[in-house]
Amino acid sequence: METWKAVLLLAAGLLCGAWRWRSREKRRYRRSVYRAETGKQYKKVEENRGMDGEYRTSLELEKRIRGRRYFVFNAYIPCRSGGSTETDIVMIHEKGIFVIENKNYCGQVRGRANREYWEHILPGKRRTFYNPIYQNQGHVRHLRRLLGEHGYHLPMVSVIVFNDGVKRLRVKMAGSDAILCRSRRAASKINRRLRRMEQVLDEAEMEEVYGILKAQTRPFWWVRYGQRKRAEKLQKKAGKI
Asked: Could you give the CA distance from residue 101 to residue 88 in angstroms, rounded to a whole number?
């Protein structure tokens, strides 16, 4: 009988701890910039690896990036071809624009900055995926053109962030000026780059750029559908390598 009491008390303690942890996580989410900008429910974000990865990365940046900044999530930037490309996170800083491609993977990642495809390695499984540096170069190019049409010619930095589920990140970055890191080091890496940059935007200009990009986060359904199909086609091609 005493053993059963101990087991029940232990189970109750674990459930109580889990409830308190979840309540704390939900409170933190409600106060986050990600929730304020996207309006997404915590449960939806929690159940979607891509959204959860973007949220975890944005938390690090929100807490630790120095200087004035705005965040825009999931903007659909028009392409010259007539389609669009979706950015994960754009940070509008008083010193420039940081275009952040977020990957929420586990296991190992191997690659080279100048190779078209990289490897994602899990126990007993390997797959190839499109080089996120190349992917983000496209985002930067289209974003530069969009802002240029509004008279803004700003320094832009490409940032590739893997969430901390990646235990080993073995990528040779020779020849690339992009920032590549895990999410827990993203803020320190970006702050280091910011120290070498000069202020280019005042508060009013930052708000105007924010407004331009925020307007791109509410596309028609067929824009989202076209972007999803292009991503699926790219992943299918990578799977054949």
From this structure: 6
